[in-house]
Amino acid sequence: MEKYGLLGKKLGHSLSPYIHNKLFELSGVHAEYKLYETDNVNDFVKSSNLDGFNVTIPYKKDVFNLCDNIHKSAKNLGVVNCVDRNFMGFNTDVYGYTKSVSEIENDFTCRVLLLGCGGVGSMIAKQYEPSNLCIAIRNLTDSKVQNIKCQFGEVKVVDIQNIPNQKFDLIVNSTPVGMFPDINSSPIEKEVICNAKSVYDTIYNPYETKLLKYATECGCKGKNGLDMLVLQAVKSHEYWYGAKFEEKDIKDIIFYTQKELDKKW
Description:
By secondary structure, the protein is an alpha/beta fold. It has helices spanning 16-27, 41-47, 60-66, 72-75, 93-101, 119-125, 142-152, 190-193, 210-217, 226-241, 247-264; strands at 2-8, 31-37, 52-55, 69-70, 82-84, 88-90, 112-115, 133-137, 156-159, 168-173, 196-201, 221-223.
C-alpha cells in the first residue's frame, strides 16, 4: 500500500484525508492518506518514507527550502504545498485558486482588494496586476509596506482597518478571520463589501462565513474556498502518479465534501 499524508500543525479538523482517499478510490490506487502533525519539520522531511505528501500552515516555506528540486509551479512563489517521492516540490494552490475563483471573476486584470498577505495571500497576490491590486494588512508599518512592494511591485498597501472608499471588482480574504470557531467575525466591515462586485473567501469552515453573509446582503457574488481545497488535491494526484479525473467526479467530491463538513460541524 502506498502512503501519503498532510504535514502541518493542529490538523484535527482537516478534511484532507476524506478528499484524498476518495481520489485514490476513483483512481483505483491502493493507498492511504493520513495527518502528520510535527514540531520538527526538518526531521520529518529527512526521515519521510511517504510516496508523497501535502504541506499546510506553517511549513510551506520551510519545505520549499528542504526539497531536492522545485517544480516550475512553485519556483516563483517560494512555497510548496505538495511533494512527491523524489522530494520534488510543487504548488497546487495556484491551480486550485485560479480555477475556483474563475467561477465568480475570471478577469485577472480586475481591481482586487486582498485581505492578508501570508502564505496563501502571497500566492494569490502574484496572480494579479500590481497596479490593480490593493493589499490590506494589520499592524501596518513602513517595513511591512516595503517588504510587500519588494515582492509584488507597486501595489497599494493599506491598513485593514482603514481601507479606502473605492470600488473593487473582487475582494479576496486570505486571513483566518471568520474561520471556525470564530464564526461571528469578519475581517472587514460590511460597507467595504458593498463596494465590490464579487467576494472570495479562502475559508470553507463554516461554509458561509460572516464575510460571505455580508456579500449576499450587499448583492455581491460570493464563493468560499472548498472548491480550492478539492482542486489543489486533484492536482496533487496528477503530480504524484499521473492521475486523471472527470469533471463530474470532481464536482461529486466537492458536493460530498460539503456534506462531510456539515456532519463534522
